[in-house]
Amino acid sequence: MNTFPEYENYDALELAQLVRKGDISAEELLEAAVNRVEKRNPKLNAVVTKMYDQARASIASGLPKGPLKGVPFLLKDLGVYYKGVPTTYGCRMFTEAIPDHDSELVARYRKAGLVIFGKTNTPEFGLTVSTEPRLFGPCCNPWNPARTSGGSSGGAAAAVASGMVPAAHASDGGGSIRIPASCCGLFGLKPTRGRISMGPDAGEGWAGMSVHHVISRTVRDSAAFLDATAGAAPGDPYRAPIPKGPFLDEVGKPTGRLKIAFTTTPPSGVSTDQECIKATHEVAKLCEELGHQVEEKAPIVDQKALGPAAVNIINVSTLGLLESKVKELGRELLPEDVENVTWRGVENGKILSAIDYFNSVQTLHRIGRQVARFFMDYDVLLSPVLLKPPILLGKLNMMTSDMKQYGQELSGFFGFTSLFNATGQPSMSVPLYWTADHLPVGLQFTGRFGEEALLFRLASQLETARPWRKRRPVLDY
Q1: What is the pLDDT of residues 38-69, one digit of tens each?
Q2: Cα separation of 394 and 132, whole Å?
Q3: Which terminus of the chain is more exposed, N or C, with fewer CB under 10 A?
Q4: How many domains are there within the chain?
């Protein structure tokens, strides 16, 4: 029985306020969330690990009086640890990998008062931009279940878009917050490198390309979650610039007149779908109407160097994780342990030298400096998030044996996001456009290193000008 039918009408901050005022209990919110998972997950496959008992126990033991006390929340099944619950990375080799501690980020989520009750679907090791792992099966897009929900935080986005939770944990090493947010009509901010700690188990992910945050329905929820989790932990190798004040305070503040560049051509030069071009021009015009200076311009990027460098780093990082696992198991890594695309990357990682890895990191740093100079002249760069609206499931299944076709499908869908993982800049997907057949198309706005505050101001201005919060997929399940 659904005891709180209005649950989906509230964002996380509003739910927390209801709990603080005593209008509803954390137990009631949890049961409302569980009800929706039980009802909708069989169709969507967004939640792959249910932690209902742990959630009820955490409420019974007394939640901290944090800013998000009582709000139901889901973790991505990759990159963070919750004591006693496996983190599988979407790979069957890790189904019994049970940590004996919480990650720093999970500890901060708990301190904020969140009620963690499950983990969401992700492709194996987050290596692609569609969520359809061999271990758990494909995650469907609530707007059209035949389409991808994006990746690698596809389960998180599907859970939020379908009303299971108002926000969910996500991570982004090449676009994995922004891409699912785009596919599912949600807001997704990738923070500045070093903004959120990856401790105590890692200093950085993918040589600094990977970061953690959330996918949410509202801009202010994203800001509130960042306030609750940002900041270095002891021993972190570096940190993002310290903000002048709470990010939540930036929501609704005037932006001033911004100088915004826009482009519809990705660094790869691959052609962009007309719907994504139309969306970008429409939103560029909206920015002009809001008083900003807008012109078509993009940084010059050596994609022939950047692409291979990023792939080398990812392959070596994946190999390192797998080698640690098989050492623990006392055996060698076998092709059948992982999906076909993963294995191909592992084989590449094995033949790379230390100099290859060093040069790859230096390439990222060099390109980061080049792009930073572009942002000396512009406050923000606007582009599509993706080259196409959400594609059909199956196009990017990593069990394929046709690597050439897989590569073509990947390069024809994904192209605008990964540059800003290399540079470490904050970048967000804003849901401002839908196609005629009701598929979301996110618009990417990228700011200077450390300037999430400006992006939150701009995002809240856009949210007011073209509201999306009540725009929901039609669910018959």
Answers
A1: 999 999 999 999 999 999 999 999 999 999 99
A2: 8
A3: N
A4: 1
